[in-house]
Amino acid sequence: MKVLKFGGTSVGSAQRMREVAELIHAPHLQRRIVVLSAMSGTTNALVEIAGLLFAGNVAAATANVETLRQRYHAVAQELLPEPAVADEAIEHLDQRFQSILDLTSAPLSADGERVILAQGELLSTLLVHRYVTRILGRPAVLLPALEFMRLDVDDEPDAAYIREHLASTLAPYAAEQLFITQGYICRSAQGHIDNLKRGGSDYSASLIGAAANAEEIQIWTDIDGLHNNDPRIVKGTYPIRELSFDEAAELAYFGAKILHPSSVLPARQHGIPVRLLNTMQPEAPGTLISAKTGAEAIKAVAAKDGITAINVKSSRMLLAHGFLRTIFEVFERYRTSIDMITTSEVAVSLTIDDATRLPLILDELQRFASVEVDENQTIICLVGNLEQDAHGAANQAFAALKDIAVRMISYGGSPNNISILVHTNDKTRALQALNAGLFQR
Ligand code: ADP
Ligand code: ASP
Ligand code: MG
Fold this sequence. Notes:
Elements: E1 2-6, H1 14-25, E2 32-36, H2 42-54, H3 58-79, H4 83-101, H5 110-117, H6 119-135, E3 141-143, H7 159-170, E4 178-182, E5 185-187, E6 193-195, H8 201-211, E7 216-221, E8 242-244, H9 245-253, H10 264-270, E9 274-278, E10 287-290, E11 298-313, H11 323-333, E12 338-343, E13 347-352, H12 358-365, E14 370-384, H13 393-400, E15 406-414, E16 417-423, H14 427-439
Parallel strand pairs: 1-2, 1-7, 2-4, 3-4, 7-9, 8-10
Antiparallel strand pairs: 5-6, 9-10, 11-13, 11-14, 12-13, 14-16, 15-16
Helix pairs in contact: 1-3, 1-6, 2-3, 2-5, 3-4, 4-6, 7-8, 8-10, 9-10, 13-14
This protein binds adenosine-5'-diphosphate, aspartic acid and magnesium ion (MG).
The site of aspartic acid (ASP) has 12 residues, from loops.
GO molecular function: aspartate kinase activity; ATP binding
EC number: 2.7.2.4
Family: Belongs to the aspartokinase family.
């Protein structure tokens, strides 16, 4: 079995859906599960509709639903040139839009919002499935992700549930070769419709790959692999041909948007290679993520915004037994994970990316220490094989950053990561300086 995931741009129009169908339908391909995102722009449109409903603006929300519905009718007409096929698809598309409209008559709940956000992937998979089966005349099974993708009580994917229920969902189709399912959407531990957070279709693909013991997971997107730096910010970036699971996991977690932050973990756990490929250039080699690592010292740089730095200072207690534990316990109580940490004789600095419970955390920390908070910080993560740092990579990186105020540095925590905290205003300059200093070739 292989798992192939196609992102929003890859299914962003009728033409693109036809190109995806070309890549997935050939009978000589082995058994495969195709995971699709919503068409590009759809999830954003659904977020906006939910926002309007939260604000009580039912008229604007309803108008936006109608605009989206018309867009999907146009895509269906273009993709499915046989009227009977288009009509049947449009009837099903309209049921999805009706499920949104049904939520406009009462104030929107958090559960209602999740139902709205789930519609994009249901719409895109329906269209591609109808094109493959009814227009190309190829057999394909539309698998409902909501029957097997599930979170546990901690809102983490429930791998055992997914494995068991994916197997039973596939069981009636022993002879089928092509399956199409929704990325991103899942059910909560209580069985309510939920999702794997923005960009979550990558995570779906990896979880499904792990559950199906796939031999490869392919992430098809709009670029020819994972680049050495953020191509939206830095000119002249290039694709990295091979990354280890650890390197890719660090880059995804620390901001390389091409991969959802957690999406490497299930593949790494099961040793399943992940290939990043370009739908617009299918013959390009892309990036292979596997257990192998190359020799280069620093391979790539990524940046994660929205970071809050917290400095905890206590001349009386620092370095006393249990002080760090006391600090960590506060974060644990509020289920807030720490990304970076540095310590000195008199203070501890740490960073978090989820500041929703920050006021409660500060309240507790202030009981035993003085606390300062810096918002709008960015973690810049340098990833590669730094085992012995034979090439002086850290030196080179800091030389490149000589004009930039660095707030924190974390080096040595893992053999393939150096993390540097800067103010978000300095991010672009820092990424460009690192590019000039490390990757000019
Ligand atoms: P999809 O919709 O297929 O999931 P995304 O937009 O989520 O695609 O991810 C692909 C985009 O990620 C690229 O178009 C690129 O702009 C951006 N990106 C950011 N950092 C990197 C990187 N290091 N390498 C490649 N792409 C990156
Ligand atoms: N459609 C979802 C999003 O836009 C999931 C994804 O595309 O991966 O975030
Ligand atoms: Mg994505």
